[in-house]
Specification:
CATH topology of the largest domain in chain B: Cytochrome Bc1 Complex, Chain A, domain 1
CATH architecture of the largest domain in chain A: 2-Layer Sandwich
Number of domains of chain A: 2
Distance between the termini of chain B: 59 Å
Number of strands of chain B: 11
Strand content of chain A: 15-25%
Shape of chain B: globular
Oligomer: heterodimer
Number of helices of chain B: 15
Largest interface: A-B, 80 and 85 residues
CATH superfamily of the largest domain in chain B: Metalloenzyme, LuxS/M16 peptidase-like
Number of domains of chain B: 2
Radius of gyration of chain B: 23 Å
Helix content of chain A: 40-55%
Structural class of chain B: alpha+beta
Number of strands of chain A: 12
Order of helices and strands of chain A: EEEHHEEHHHHHEHEEHHEEHHHHHEHE
Shape of chain A: globular
Strand order of the largest sheet of chain A: 1-2-6-3-5-4
CATH class of the largest domain in chain A: Alpha Beta
Largest sheet of chain A: 6 strands, mixed
Order of helices and strands of chain B: EEEHHEEHHHHHEHEEHHEEHHHHHE
CATH topology of the largest domain in chain A: Cytochrome Bc1 Complex, Chain A, domain 1
CATH superfamily of the largest domain in chain A: Metalloenzyme, LuxS/M16 peptidase-like
CATH architecture of the largest domain in chain B: 2-Layer Sandwich
């Protein structure tokens, strides 16, 4: 025999050390930085309390349009000159919008960081926002969303979100808006949103070799001309569960796959069950070896992949499963997916499964300690969710300490297979009858 | 700027069975990346067996002599690790990043599937993964607008018989015809230690890795008659542009312009890399400035140019743009073509060149900022160029490219007679 049959055990565990965190108040803003000795690349990220949750109802997509408009010229230079200046440093402005925050960042060799932050601040604090440019950017964004919505997925997600949270609420509408909401924005919407949310100092996140970075100078540049203080953040939203399961069918004629989006509301990020709930989601649909992926992909071959998880922002959360399955097996795939969710709710998880889930989640924290981008992202989590410097180390401990009883209890409490909304985006003419016959719930046709 | 693009140590050895082992120690994070490059890709597939190298990659996760079906994923994720594999025309790579104390487990798993896959391979597993791959094809290529562009570009760029003529995902007909014996033979033929490079980067000691490599891989026999892929280094010029127009369910007209350049790793391809960045990366690029901003005929988020880093033939350079509402495919094609043509006639300025090099430098260091990024590139250089230390030469080589070289390459390779043009036009709505 040429191979060694015995599986080796682990070597001596390495200690988990999150980089040293530095917090400072400079020029009216907060600085949160991590020291990465010897790292040649650095990331600086300006975190603003201007997430999609701050957009008024009916104005969805405002943050996305403003993000693009920031680069259409500043008080000091036109759009072309700005692009050439920032790209000459080797970076582009990266903007990220989620429910809780607006983030704009640069990533450059460390010696270019201060020049890059000056340009970042110039765009964020003093954009030109010329009305003709804003209108063009808005039209381009509406077109970009139309392109995106031609793919399977976005329509199904919007339908699911509206059904879970109510389309009358901002959080019941798509995070980035839809082609029509963006097309309906006007110039004042954009300039008012900017003056309301983009002048407040916010938090400057820095990940890099702090011995080669002057944090005070960076902060002075980032907060120059800023004004106004933080605005109180609203608390978690109560969302009720539906009293019965149903299927919403979104027609996509000729589709060779059916896109599945299954979900129901779940707790917000600060809920005390966050860790056991995350682990229950991992066993059910998070890891490659999850129950859903094992059955639907590895045993049945219905799909290239299926995932499920609990996602949570400051004010609300949702449990969701997503996949694309071959059209012919749409109904059986749905039946089996709902079956696995029910089984997990009713009988919980096994120690064998939980062992994989907890070591995977904990180990990923070590694996993610590498790049400045990943560290900056971890710091952002601390700020958005008001968490202490040792949060990641403590999270690791609580992941490793979670037992079968706690995780099974979280599954029983937070999974609601009878309240699921099952959105199917596929070829209605081919799959509708089978969906009705599946007995999973009333079938409703989505009318756009 | 450092003189080398790789300021970390590199140590190498070769086991008696031919397995090359590359180790690059870095104790910054308590993680280690393990990466195997097998020198087999879709370029080795004969007619009628397209998609087999990639389908085979799936089978490598389904158990081996001492590893039960699905246990591979479970053991790596259960150790806190991430894992995956990819297949392209040139090669197949398998990789995992794990907390450093699980290095030995990762090596054991890789050795077991290198040396012991065939006895564990069953018809049931093949049938299951064939369906998974067919769903991958539907999801990534068939069910999305423009999803088949790459499948259409390859046969336009490379003639029948060329190893890059067909796409790695393969055809449904060939996948349906895949027989178990073919895959058993595939493993026996190509998955030999002397056809692979094992790279370990991160929190690990080189001497210890060499000893573990010997322990787990050392007894796997070499194979001395591994067949080469067809030679694809030269593609005879036809003297005729290749043009394809597709009417499909797409939301807007889109144009791809593609050319054959040089193989990855050559000075010529370094020029292509910088040229593509000048042409199509960022808001300061020529395509953005001319088509998205200037004439405003292209959608800003969907304009760009890039080289595809293939090493065994003239690699493609692809430029693409998608029309703004009201702009015809023909107008967009003419605009895109003009900007490409001007690379030969309008000299690249010092500012354009500096911008491109600054962006490429950041891109390089970003890639190097993780142990898995480094492991994959070291494996590439060991496999394709025989020496992982050549990794340090790439960034300086990009930074040495001149405006004259770009103009020369544009004149030599990007002319109309060597051009492939693929256009998508939306179906008329009834």
């Amino acid at each position: 025999m040429t191979l060694i049959a015995t599986r080796p055990g682990p070597g001596a565990p390495r200690p988990y050390r999150f980089p040293q965190v530095v917090r400072r108040t400079v020029a009216g803003g907060q600085v949160v930085a991590a020291h990465l000795p010897g790292q040649n690349l650095a990331v600086a990220l300006l975190l603003l309390d201007a997430g999609a949750g701050r957009e008024p109802v009916g104005k969805e997509g405002l943050g996305g349009v403003l993000a693009k408009a920031l680069e259409e010229g500043t008080s000091q230079r036109d759009a072309t000159a700005y692009a050439l200046a920032i790209e000459a440093l080797g970076t582009e402005l990266v903007t990220v919008l989620d429910w809780d925050s607006f983030q704009v960042s640069v990533q450059v060799p460390v010696e270019r960081l201060s020049a890059a932050v000056e340009l970042l601040a110039e765009a964020v604090r003093t954009p030109r926002l010329d009305p003709a440019d804003v209108r063009r950017v808005r039209d381009d964004e509406a077109t970009a969303l139309r392109m995106d919505w031609a793919n399977p997925g976005p329509r199904a997600e919007a339908v699911l979100r509206a059904d879970l949270f109510g389309a009358e609420n901002r959080w019941g509408r798509p995070m980035y808006g839809d082609p029509d909401s963006v097309a309906g924005l006007d110039v004042d919407d954009v300039t008012v949103f900017h003056s309301e949310w983009f002048i407040r100092p916010g938090t400057l996140i820095v990940a890099g070799d702090l011995e080669r970075i002057d944090l005070d100078a960076l902060a002075a540049a980032a907060f120059a001309g800023a004004g106004g203080g933080p605005v109180e953040k609203a608390g978690p939203i109560e969302v009720s569960l539906h009293d019965q399961r149903r299927i919403i069918l979104v027609d996509r004629p000729g589709s060779v796959q059916s896109t599945l989006r299954l979900g129901h509301p779940s707790p917000h990020r600060a809920h005390p069950d966050y860790v056991p709930m995350t682990l229950a989601g991992t066993v059910l649909g998070g890891a490659f070896t999850s129950r859903l992926n094992h059955l639907i992909r590895e045993v049945r071959g219905y799909t290239y992949g299926i995932r499920g998880d609990f996602a949570a922002s400051r004010r609300f959360g949702r449990f969701a499963v997503s996949s694309g399955v071959q059209t012919a097996v749409t109904a059986p795939a749905l039946v089996e997916a709902v079956g696995e969710i029910s089984r997990t709710e009713l009988t919980g998880v096994t120690e064998d499964e939980l062992a994989v889930a907890r070591s995977w989640r904990a180990g990923q924290l070590s694996v993610e300690l590498q790049s400045p981008r990943a560290i900056a992202s971890a710091l952002t989590t601390l700020v958005v969710h008001d968490l202490p410097d040792d949060y990641h180390a403590r999270l690791r401990e609580s992941l490793l300490a979670a037992d079968v009883e706690q995780v099974s209890a979280a599954a029983a409490t937070h999974l609601h297979p009878e309240s699921l909304t099952l959105v199917v985006e596929g070829d209605s003419a081919v799959i509708r009858d089978e969906l009705v016959a599946s007995g999973l719930g009333e079938v409703v046709d989505h009318t756009p | 700027m450092p003189d080398s693009g790789y300021p970390w140590p590199i140590e190498t050895t070769r086991l008696d069975n031919g397995l090359r082992v590359v180790v690059s120690e870095d104790r910054t994070a308590p993680a280690v990346a393990v990466n195997l490059w097998y020198d087999v890709g879709s370029r080795h597939e004969p007619e009628g067996q397209t998609g087999f190298a990639h389908l085979f990659e799936h089978l490598m996760f389904e158990g081996s002599a001492n590893v039960a079906k699905t246990e591979h994923m479970k053991l790596i994720q259960g150790s806190g690790g991430s894992l995956n594999a990819t297949t392209n025309p040139d090669r197949t790579n398998y990789f995992e990043t794990v907390p450093a104390e699980h290095l030995e487990l990762a090596l054991w798993l890789e050795a077991d599937r290198m040396g012991g896959l065939v006895p564990a391979l069953t018809q049931e597993t093949l049938d299951n993964q064939r369906e998974v791959v067919k769903n991958e094809r539907r999801q990534r290529y068939e069910n999305v607008p423009y999803g088949d562009a790459w499948l259409r570009l390859l046969p336009l760029l490379y003639p029948p018989g060329h190893p890059y003529h067909h796409a790695t995902i393969g055809s449904m007909a060939d996948l349906n015809a895949a027989a178990l014996a073919t895959f058993q033979g595939f493993h026996t033929t190509y998955y030999a230690p002397n056809n692979a490079v094992l790279t370990v980067v991160g929190d690990a000691d080189p001497a210890e890795v060499f000893a573990l490599a010997e322990k787990y891989f050392g007894a796997i026999p070499a194979r001395d008659d591994i067949p080469a892929a067809p030679d694809g280094r030269t593609v005879p010029a036809t003297g005729q542009p290749a043009v394809e127009a597709v009417t499909a369910d797409v939301p807007a007209p889109r144009v791809y312009v593609a050319h054959r350049t040089h193989p990855y790793g050559t000075t010529g391809y370094d020029v292509t890399t910088v040229l593509a960045t000048v042409l199509g990366t960022g808001r300061g690029s020529r395509l953005y400035q001319r088509l998205a901003d200037g004439e405003r005929i292209a959608q800003p988020d969907l304009v760009g140019a890039y080289g595809v880093d293939l090493a065994h033939g003239p690699a493609p350079l692809i430029a693409t743009a998608t029309a703004r509402p009201g702009v015809s495919a023909e107008r967009l094609r003419a605009g895109l073509t003009d900007v490409v043509d001007e690379l030969a006639t309008v000299p690249v300025t010092a500012a354009e060149l500096d911008r491109a090099k600054a962006l490429l430098s950041t891109q390089w260091w970003r890639h190097m900022s993780t142990v898995d990024g480094r492991a994959d590139v070291l494996g590439r250089y060991a496999t394709q160029f025989g020496d992982p230390a050549k990794i340090g030469e790439r960034l300086p080589a990009w930074l040495a490219v001149t405006a004259e070289q770009i103009a020369e390459q544009a004149a030599e390779l990007l002319g109309a007679a060597d051009r492939v043009t693929l256009t998508y036009v939306p179906e008329e709505t009834p």
